[in-house]
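Good morning C.,

I know you're traveling, so I'll keep this short. The sequence:
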Amino acid sequence: MTIGVVGAGTMGAGIAQVAILGGCRVLLHDALDAALAKGRSRIAQSVSRAVERGHVQADAAEEALSRLESITHLTEMRDAEFIIEAAPEDLSLKQRLFAELDGFADPGAILATNTSSLSITAIAGATTRPDRVVGMHFFNPVPAMALVEVVAGQRTDPGVVDETMAVARRLGKTPVRAKDTPGFIVNRIARHFSLEALRILGEGRVTYDQIDRVVKGAGRFRMGPFELMDLIGIDVNFAVSRSVYEAFFHDPRFRPHPIQQRMVESGLLGRKTGRGFYEYPDNPKG
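The tokens, ready to paste straight into the viewer:
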């Protein structure tokens, strides 16, 4: 099976990695050559670590990496049977990409979006094949997280949903069906996990690390809300918060917090920039 992945960032590279390890040929594309090269490097390093930890055999890893192909032109996706878009969380950008993919992708190809909160119906509306468009939301880090939300838009063919579920299982994931509602399942719940923590922090009575310690200690969570926001990316978290807030017609329950905006404006995006709520000296980019 040939899978196309549009976007070689953290999510796209992770999706490409599990796909090649799942025995698929992968066509990896990014509009930026530097991002494409970085994505390939990230995949190679991650696979190498998996070998060192004994999770993947060396010969299997070498064979998997041979199935990864970088493509510089989106039109080269015409050979893919299944295309997964992993671009930034921006509706107009995704609609433009899907309109372009619609123009040359094989008529039988499934076009999947990794959006975490945007309307699948709205994205599919940019194509002439809304019945072949589906949501396929992976979680970060993709190689480690088992869950995948499979989301049918208003006009998605039920057979396409079934095929997408099967692809997710082939990649070693656990798919769940979700409705095309703001935030789907996980991000609708997660809004309150992060936003309530931000509101408490904004009151100035406790610190972010104190909140994380309580959530992990008494709550038994593996990560506190601020550690999780740093892992996901403050910018991504803020974008999803805004998307869900707008989709719910400004319901105050989902209102983003000014702390998120200030951190994004300051370039404090979490692990990927070396500094968010916490500092990450091994990744000093911020």
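Safe travels,
E.
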